[in-house]
Structure formats: structure tokens, C-alpha cells
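User: Need the bound-state model for NAP:
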Amino acid sequence: MTSHATLIIGANSEIAKAIAVQVINDETRQLIVISRDCSFYQQEQFANAKVISIDNYQEQAISQAVENLKASMSVIITQVFICHGILHNERCQPEKRLEDFSAEMFIETLTANTITPMLWLKHLTPLLATKYGCKVVIFSARVGSISDNKLGGWYSYRASKAAMNMLITSAAVELARRAKNVKLISFHPGTTDSPLSKPFQKNVPQGKLFNSQFVASQLLAIVESAVVDGQASYLDWQGKKIPW
Ligand SMILES: NC(=O)c1ccc[n+]([C@@H]2O[C@H](COP(=O)([O-])OP(=O)(O)OC[C@H]3O[C@@H](n4cnc5c(N)ncnc54)[C@H](OP(=O)(O)O)[C@@H]3O)[C@@H](O)[C@H]2O)c1
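Assistant: Bound-state model below.
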């Protein structure tokens, strides 16, 4: 029997780790993870996972990681989760007003949130276009919706996710011709307890701050039931459509 694999990229994300824990307990699937920090995957429970450490997310490193994947592949990848995302770091905070906007922060956010996932899609596509089909989830955010933008602010983060959404819809048009079996999903996890959301949790209404285990369960169920229909979907943690 052909073994089907789940590939998780940016696997040190809090949500990625919760997905990995659920996948490793599924005996029908092989788990492959890629991250700059693979320490979480040194645990005994991941002994059967393929763990790929990467130095950075420059295109050269991404291309090399995909080559390594190809060389050692005895499985078919039928699920991919691309989890990159920054909202703040030691150099930048999300903008509250126009005066906070800086070229440096915009470029850094766009590089992590948009260019990096797109480079993975570029290099992985030849590997995913098999007769078995593959569902590719790229983590977005509701704030990337242009039509849903009522609050403004967070210029760089919003724009990086909106740009990612546009790249996903464009890629879906191309893949409908070239790789009909690949389904792209732009996913909003909801506000989830993680390093990314930590500084912004105090105003989250009661019951609306999810833990990563809940989000991972929701997402895996959404992916399982998603239909490969040649179109991109923009979905939230309930599986509900978000307007682009
Ligand atoms: N948490 C929330 O409330 C929330 C809400 C809406 C959307 N999201 C989205 O969900 C996704 C996962 O978020 P999370 O909450 O799990 O975040 P997290 O725990 O803070 O994980 C950060 C992720 O971003 C990657 N990353 C960090 N710096 C990077 C850089 N400079 N270049 C490329 N990748 C970089 C990390 O990759 P490594 O594994 O290599 O470290 C890791 O995958 C993100 O796309 C985020 O925007 C989260």
C-alpha cells in the first residue's frame, strides 16, 4: 500500500506542533516536518517522523530542502501545511497609525508571511501533482480579507496576508490547468494562544482565544472534507468561507 504523508513547514509554530501531534498518532500517515528549530521533534513520540532542519528560508535553502525530500521519498505527500507568520518581533510591532509604517517592517513581514510560503509552493508543486491529490493549507488570517477590513491598522501584517491570498487565488487558476489534483486552502485559525498572538490576547472576548489543539483538530477535519475542485478556498476555523 502507498503510504500517504503530511508535510508541515514552519513546524515550530505553536499550531504546527499541535497538528504534528495529531498526525503522528494517525497510523495511516507518515509525518514530515521542516523548521529552523526542530527541538520539539526530538521527543520519542516523533521517532518515526522525518525531521528536516533548515538554516533559513532563502530560496536556495528551500530548493535544497525540497531536493532532500525528493531524494528520500518513499511516500506520497497528500497534505501540506505552510505555517509561517510574523506579526511582531524584537524590531517591529504592528502599526497602529500611518506614522508607524516603515519600509523595513513591511519588507520583513512580507518576506516571512508571503514570499516564503510562495517559494515553498513554487518548489513543491512538481512533487504534489500526483494522481493521489494533495491539499495544501497556507496559513492566512481574517485580517487579510480586503472586503472585511473595518478596523484598519496592522498595515504590514494585513497587506502580507492579503498579498498571500492573491497569490493563492492566482496559483489556483494555474494549478487548475497544470495540476488539477492540488487544492489550495487559505486558512484563518482564529485567535490562538501562541507566541504570535501573546501580546494581543488581553482584549480577546471570553471563549474566543483558542488553544492550538482545538485549532489543529478543526483544521484536520476541514482538510479531510475539502473537495479538490480546482479553486482556492479561504476558510476559517469553522470551515466557513471568508470573503476575499
Ligand atoms: N495565533 C493566532 O492568533 C493567529 C491568528 C491568525 C492567523 N495566524 C497565522 O497562523 C500561522 C501560525 O501562527 P502561530 O500562531 O502558530 O505562530 P508562532 O507559534 O509564532 O509560529 C511562527 C511561525 O512563523 C515562522 N517564522 C517566524 N519567523 C519567520 C521568518 N523570519 N521567516 C519565515 N518564517 C518565520 C516559524 O517558522 P519556524 O518553524 O522555522 O520557526 C513558525 O512557523 C501564521 O501564519 C499566523 O499568521 C495566527
